[in-house]
Amino acid sequence: MKVIVFHSYKGGTGKTTLALNIAISFARQGYKTLAIDADLNAPTFESIFVGLNPKYKFNDLFEFELRKKALNDDDGKEKSPPQPKDLPINSLIEENLDLVFAESKPKFGFGLLSMDKNFHVGALKKLMETKNEFEKLGYDYLIMDTSPSLNLASINAIIIADATLIVLRPNKYGIAGTTFLIKELYSMLGTVKRKDYIVFNQVVSKTPTKLVNQWQKHFKKRLDVETIGIVHCDCGVALNMLFGNLIVEHEENKEFSKVINKIVEKLNHDLL
Ligand SMILES: Nc1ncnc2c1ncn2[C@@H]1O[C@H](COP(=O)(O)OP(=O)(O)OP(=O)(O)O)[C@@H](O)[C@H]1O
Ligand SMILES: [Mg+2]
Fold first, then answer.
1. Domains held by the chain: number
2. Whose CA is nearest to atom 5 of ligand 1?
3. What is the CATH number of the domain that holds 183?
4. pTM value?
């Protein structure tokens, strides 16, 4: 099993859109795929996959003991913490795509959203165990959608990743901010074993090719990070959002789907 984490410096760059569409593409190719909403600050899966109502959320794996303590609930009703196998539910849109939701009402400063380094050390251990458990369940790919910028929960996801897709919009602060993010990540974690890629998203059509080449060279030369995809601004994607849907119909002739499938092909090639 391979873990692919979607991350960004700024919010709103397209992580969730790309993560879900790439997860669907993996699933359609027959890979057993699990997409995890690990954007704990601003979860989205619940509003996209309406009506699925999973019993347990991603947070439950990590915060069970803490919540018990907070409630002073030694003889609480639920004595044993949920296990990783209790979390995934089928997406109902693809047989091979399962989902894990995040708590829809984030408790800022609590548990995974706290700055408590000791808690996050424990959470990382739990995350590593969880990864092993998901592998035992037969998943080929784990796709994790994170909260933007450097926060301890997202860093833990990146630590367990086989690949990180760093999504940015190509403008001055997007490029500068992402360069800063990658440098910080490398000084903290190094590149050991993990493959990092850049995805330029929402690229306005008619952007000069020369400029696109310059951005790619910038990341390759300065940080040795390869570009895996250039996704144009696509009104079809934005239009889907009108209906609260980040999932784009995969029609082979549509440029968006072609780029998604190419990214999946490259990840398959590089990771498996
Ligand atoms: N290629 C694209 N073309 C047009 N619109 C896009 C494209 N990619 C994403 N969007 C739109 O941009 C908005 C932000 O996308 P999305 O929610 O996926 O970003 P995000 O990085 O997950 O944001 P956040 O950091 O808040 O979680 C959405 O309205 C989405 O429809
Ligand atoms: Mg998102």
1. 1
2. 238
3. 3.40.50.300
4. 0.96
